Amino acid sequence: MDHALSLELDPTTIAADPRVHDLSEVKQSGMAWVKSHVQEVNSWVERDGFALLRGLNIVSTNQFSTILETLFGERLSQYIYRSSPRTALNNNIYTTTEYHADQVILQHNENAYSNVWPMRMGFFCVIPATTGGCTPLADSREVYRHIPAELRDKFERLGVQYVRNYGDIDLPWQEVFQTESKTEVEHYCQQNEIEFTWLDDKRLQTKQWRPAVMRHPKSGEKVWFNQAHLFHCSSLDNQLSAHMRDSIGSEFLPRNAFFGDGSEISDQDIAMINQVYRDLTFAYPWQKNDILLLDNMLFTHGREAYTGTRKVLVGMAKIASA
């Protein structure tokens, strides 16, 4: 927790940050202001990779979804092929990942383990935590540049193979794919280049190869865009003992990540990647009614541990694929 708090930018730094837009003097409702400033707000995100809108008057979840649809210029996307538990609200607004308050959620680009992902994300702080609970950010371009060259080149050459076993410890396949139908699961996998194996009537295993590095479609810059560090078995240490890891076997853990050729990624490699993220991560303390707009390829996000009640919502759009 001490480390998480150290990520927070101080008030003086925040006040001088051009990516934080203080709109507390706006007399209109948040919805009315956004409707008259769509181009301007989108230009902020395109220029900086994210924009924090602070001080707008927003009164409901429905208003938040309307604000996002107005800015994104389309309906929000349904969240299928999930990797974490969350609750769906109205109009494809979701709670952020519902892990215990004492757990840290590592930095990640949403759905970077998939061949489809949102280019735009919007977060809305309904209730800030008593302490902690920030949504830290890191620049994916800088992460790419700071990964040691030998390791970065190996990932870039081989890509990542994600292996998931749904059920007892991880999410059930019914929640991940948002269906009770095995046929629908199989169709989704076939359409999205996911290998699948039914281990028995209830257990499903999937494998998917994805690149570790992508180019941003507008800027052409290389970004570190994968979730190898989140899926890797070393990230399960707070859930599974070493004995359980060994007895289950690396292929049958709830989730695991390998190099694209199937070879193992060492714990040391993952530790190095996580250190790069720690070195580059920064955070703004949430305030009630804050909206954080994010280019999901340019910036990662995560969650600090926290105390008290915390409620942050998210919506996604502009689906990209490769």
List the helices and strands and how they pair.
Elements: H1 2-6, H2 11-15, E1 20-22, H3 30-35, H4 38-48, E2 50-54, H5 61-72, E3 94-95, E4 105-108, E5 116-127, E6 131-132, E7 137-139, H6 140-146, H7 149-158, E8 160-166, H8 173-177, H9 182-191, E9 195-198, E10 204-210, E11 213-215, E12 222-224, H10 228-231, H11 242-248, E13 255-259, H12 267-280, E14 291-295, E15 299-303, E16 306-307, E17 311-321
Pfam families: TauD (PF02668)
GO molecular function: 2-oxoglutarate-dependent dioxygenase activity
GO biological process, one term: antibiotic biosynthetic process
Key terms for this structure?
322 residues; alpha+beta; Double-stranded beta-helix; 2 domains; 6-stranded mixed β-sheet; 12 helices; globular; disordered N terminus; antibiotic biosynthesis; AlphaKG_dependent_hydroxylases; TauD-like_sf; TauD/TfdA-like; 2-oxoglutarate-dependent dioxygenase activity
